[in-house]
Structure formats: structure tokens, C-alpha cells
Amino acid sequence: MTTPRTRHRLLIAGFIAALAVIGIGVQWSHDAAPRVPLDVVPAGAEDPESVEARTLTCERTLPDAPTRDLEEVEPVGRVSSEAVNSCPDAFDGQVVVYYGEVVGDVLQRDGGAWTLVNDDAYALTLGPLSGHGDFEGGNSGLAVWLPGQLATLADEPGNADRRGDVLRVNGVVRRADPEDGGGLTLRAIQAEVVFEAQYLETPVNRVQALVAAVFTLVAIGVVVWDRRLRARR
Amino acid sequence: MIFRPDREDLKVIGHYLGIITMSLTAVMVVPLLVAIATWEPDDVTALLIGMAVAIGLGQFLRTRLRTTRELEWSHGLVTVALAWILATMVTAIPLYLSGHFSSYFDATFDAMSGYTTSGLSLLQDLDHLSAPMNLLRHLTHLAGGQGIVVAVLTIMTSAGSQISTLYVGEGRDDRIVPSIIQTARFIWVVTAFYAVVGTTALWITARLAGFSDGRALFHAFNIFIAAFDTGGFTPNSTSMAYYHSAPMETVVLVLMIAGTLSFGMHYMLWRRRTREAALNLELRSLATTMTMTAMIVVFGLVRAGTFDSVDNLYRKGIMTLVSAHTGTGFAFNAGALYESDWGLIAPAGIVIAMALGGMASSTAGGMKAMRVGLAAKSLARDIRRSIMPDAAVVMSGYTGKRRQVLRDGVVRPAVTILVLYMMMYLGGAAVGVFYGFDLTTALFESTSAAANVGLTSGLLAPDNPLPLKTVYWVQMWLGRLEFMAAFALIGWTWALLRARV
Lengths: 233, 501
What we know:
The complex is a heterodimer of chains A (233) and B (501). With 233 residues, chain A is α+β, with helices and mostly antiparallel strands. In chain A, 31% of the residues lie in helices and 25% in strands. Chain A folds into two domains: 4-34 and 203-232; 42-54 and 69-199, CATH 2.40.50.140. Chain A has helices spanning 4-31, 48-51, 81-86, 88-91, 121-124, 206-232, and strands spanning 95-109, 112-118, 141-147, 162-163, 166-177, 183-195, 198-199. In chain A, strand 5 and strand 6 (183-195) form a beta hairpin. The longest helix of chain A has 28 residues, at 4-31. The radius of gyration of chain A is 27 Å and the shape is elongated. Helix content of chain B is 68%, strand content 1%. Chain B contains 22 helices and two strands. A two-stranded antiparallel sheet of chain B has the order 1-2. Chains A and B meet through helix 1, helix 3, strand 1, strand 2 and helix 6 of A and helix 3, helix 4, helix 15 and helix 16 of B.
């Protein structure tokens, strides 16, 4: 016969064991996730810095600085969203080349479309995180305005199931775009799809399904046990 | 002498924790249905695991720790403090299994951020996150904004008189109607009203912005939750800048302000007691500080040459300011721009706004407008007293629920909490500086976490040192509970370890 003190200790031990089992089950499910990485986007694998041949100074333009017409601006070459975000003034009004994956939605309106075009590792090299499990930080991208016929260029934006269309955009950086309430944008002059959307073909995580089934059965068991205890009282 | 809590004390806490844990399944049910409808099998199993753990553990605690002991004041505070941690731990399970977090701790960070309606995130590759998991993140805002403990117990138990302590423990001290149950239900009614109106308005504006019907609904519902519960999560990485839509931003502006008003103020407005509302110290304090910080931000942005048109100053500057002051944390441009493009004065204005926060008994964080108003009134009274003759009696009054005389007994606790918040903001910033970040960035991030705002200057990242992430985690928890429940938990733990009966 067990004493109340022993029962109490057994209860605590059982609770700790249950927590350990939960921890192991969750970690096992996490680690067992199957990975099927996508192809690397060839253009995206290039180092943006290597394409750039011109130095830009990162300092705020004075309000009375002379503005230049678009035709006079030399193309800066390829830029990354990180560089533009960290020094928007240096790129303001510059014609640049930008590569990235269209993600989320293509918001068609006013004779064009707003898109979010990411150039992070998930967009250009590794593909969506769930396909490979290599952590490369957060997303990074630029808001791109695709005017006129370019608005229909990307019809498969990226989401959980696929990497979206990858675009090469030749456009003008607007540090405080009046058409976007002062947002930092890239207004496309030319754009093309350089890599079609690619779907993830990751199989179902069977270990996770097994753990889910076992945990669900145990949870149902605990509820039934409680009902019986109550009925007995 | 400290009294050591006995087994019955622990049982009553455990019993209520069990009920709360079980109820967390409600947060996961809708994402599960969405996962089934859109057939995301790994999300289905991840959510099932989370629900099974919540039900299994919760039922076990509830059954085994059933007791006749009544919930007392200290039990309530400790239960609240632990419930928020437990809710975070359980909800982090499906988030972790989504594969978008490099560690389980990072997943708990997002869950804590969600429940505390902060909006900071360590999730990676958000733009490829599945819809069910995205929805789960936003629903944590809803549960946390309502106050998970009270929200649960008013529905699942009939222990009305016992849960008033939990109500206070969750940082709410404004009993709108005499009964706590009725008060909590009123909160649900207000939320439901805004949910219908807000989601519909956002859906219409999202359609106009170019979204398809289904995507518009998904974004509208998520953005409604994050705006009204002053949370700050968004379905995509660029936050509100993703939408490029002035009409959507206008709806969001209304929702953010509605979210930062106390539910008591909503009740006043509901009853059309507008004159009373206009005299309310808290509302006046909020309006004053929001106007002053808006002036700082606009001045800073104009001086730095960041924006030169009224439209730009409104859509980026004022919207960000309101987002910061209400504790929402929506970004209206890329986070790096605060540092690279906003100069120094405007971000300083944003930090002040974040630190001040919204109204008490709302979903907003920060010091709270009532405390700021009381401290300002007290300061003005003391200044008047110092310039009056010695024999003069200087009185000051304020309008809360009714017209009252300003007494030191009211001012003292308000100022104490203000000081604690200041210490927390500076303490978090000091840790950031210790890890090599510059003071302005570290202060921005620390204030954002402790005031449950969620704006980021770009400092917070998954590869931050674990102690720094832990500091922000604790700051979010402390900020949401406004210290008292957390102090009670520390006191109890101390008593358990050291005290003798």
C-alpha cells in the first residue's frame, strides 16, 4: 500500500516524465521534417557587390541639391535591398538593376501593380525555409511598382508552397515616393521573369504525424480518466 | 516572518493553471480548421500536437489538483504570472514545429510577443509562412489582448467573485460594471463589434488595394486583430508598408486608437457620455502626449529632410507615431530607415511615444496615460504650492470615473510604476549596449519590448545573444503584467525556497 506522501512523489515524478516525453516528441518531430531544397536561382547567386562598379556616398542629399533628369543618370548596376534600405539617400533617383522573388500578392490597381520583391537567401539561393531548414535570418526586399503591361508579369508570387517568380527589374529608386505616401520604392522601367515559380515537393512529416496521433490518444485518455473519476465521486 | 505556501496553496494555483492551459486549444482550433481546409498536413499535425499537450496537461492539472481552497489575492497574482508563461510555452509548440524558428526559445519569444500584444518577432522567412501558422500568431494577440486568464475563466467557470484578483493581476484595474463577469463580457462585446466593423472595412479597402476576395479577408482579419489588440504582427515582412494603401491605413488608424482606449472609455462612449469622456484625465493626457510627440516627430522629419509633403509626413511620420503611442507597433516603412533615413529627433519622439503608451485597462502597453496624467498633475500642484504663501492650501483635482481630489496616496503608486518602467527601459538598453549595439538603437528596442509596442530599429534578430533575447522576453512579460503579478511570483518562489512556517 502506498502512503499519501509516496503517491504525491509518484505524481510529481509522473508529471516530470510527461514533460520530458512531450519535449522529446516535439524535438523529434521538428528534427524529422523532410527537406527537399529548391534550385539555386543562377542570377541570384551572383554577389551584388561584384556587379557594381561605381561608388556611392551614403549621406543625406541637401534640399537644394540639383536634381538630374532620368536620362542623365548612369545605371548604378545591381543593388541589394539591404544596401538600399541602409542608405536610401545614396540611391535616390538612381537607375538600378535588382533581382528578387515576388512574394505574397500582386496588387494590381491604377494601371500597374505593387509587389514585394525579396532578394534574401530564401528568395534567391535556398528557397522557402521549410524546404531546407537552413536559417538565414529574416526577409529582406523592396517594394516594386510594375507599371502598365509589366503588372501582369509575375502571376505566381511566393508563399508557403512555392518560391515565386524571380524578376530582374531595371528601375529607379525613390527614397520617398510621393505616389506611395513617402515610401521607399523601386519604380520599374523594364522587368522580366528570369526564373519561373518553383513548387516545394516536401513529403509529409510522418514522424510528426505519429507523434500527433500518440499525443492525441493520450490527451483523450486523460479526459476519459477525468470523467470516470468524477463519475465515481 | 514569511509564510511558506502549503500544498493546498499550490493546488489551487495548479488547478486554475490547468483550466487555462486547456482553454488554449481555443486559440489553435481556427488555425487547425484552416489547415484542414487548405490541406497543410504538417500544420494539421503540429496544431494537433499543441492541442493535445494543452488538453492533456491541463486536464491532468485540473483533475489532480482539485481543491476546496478558495482563490485568494496572492493565488490570483501568481496564477496570472505563471499562466502567461505556460500559455507561451504551449503555443510555442506548433510555432516551433512550423520550422520557421531556429530554436524552441525563439518560438516562445514570438508566442510571448503575441500574447503580450508586443509584435516583436524572431520568426524567419515570414514571407513563406503558411496561412494557418500566420493566423495562429495573430490569434495570440486576440487572446492576450483580451487578457487570457480572465477571458478564459469568465467563459469556463462560474467563480465570478474569485477571479477579480486575476483581473487586476492581468494589468486591469477598471471594473466597468459591478460584476467582473459582466465586465469581461462587455469587453468581448466591444471586441466583437469592432471585429465585424473593422474586418469588413479592411476587407473592402484591401479589395480596392488589389487583393483577391480570399486574400483580402485573410489580411483584413489578421490586420484587424493586430490593430485593435495593439499587437503589431502582420502576415508579411514589411508590415503595413506591404499594402501601399492610404484607405487601409486610415481604417488601421481608427482601430489602433480604439484599441488604445480603455474599455471603460468605450463604455462611456457606448453610453454616449461624451462630456464625461472629454473631461477624463486619462483621455486628455493621451491626447496631449500624442500631440506633443507628433510635433517632435514631424519637426524631426522636416529638419532631417526626410519628408517634405504633408501627405508623406502623415502616412509615414504620424502613422508611425500613432502606432508607437498606441503600442501597436505596425511599421509603415522598413525598420532600417529609422536609423538610416529619419535623423535623430524623429526616432527620439517615437521612443518617447512608445514609453508613454496608451490607456490603462486597454490592450496597450507602456507607462499608461493615467499615470502620466497623475504625475503631471501632481508636479503642477507642487509647483503651485512652492510659489504660494506658506499658509495657502493648494488643492488639485482630476476626473477619472468621477471628479476626485488629487491625493498623494493616488500619485505615489502611479509614480512608482512610472519609475519601474523607466528602470526597465534603461536596464534593457544597458544590456543592448553591453552586447555592442549603440545606445539609441538599444534604447529604441528595449523601450519597444518593455512597452509591448513591437517597432524595431533592426537590432532584434534571431542571431542575437541568448541573454539579450531573454531580456526582451522578460521585458515583454513584465510590461504586460505591469510588474505586480511578476513580483508576487518572485515573492512566492522566495517564500517556498526560504521561509519556514
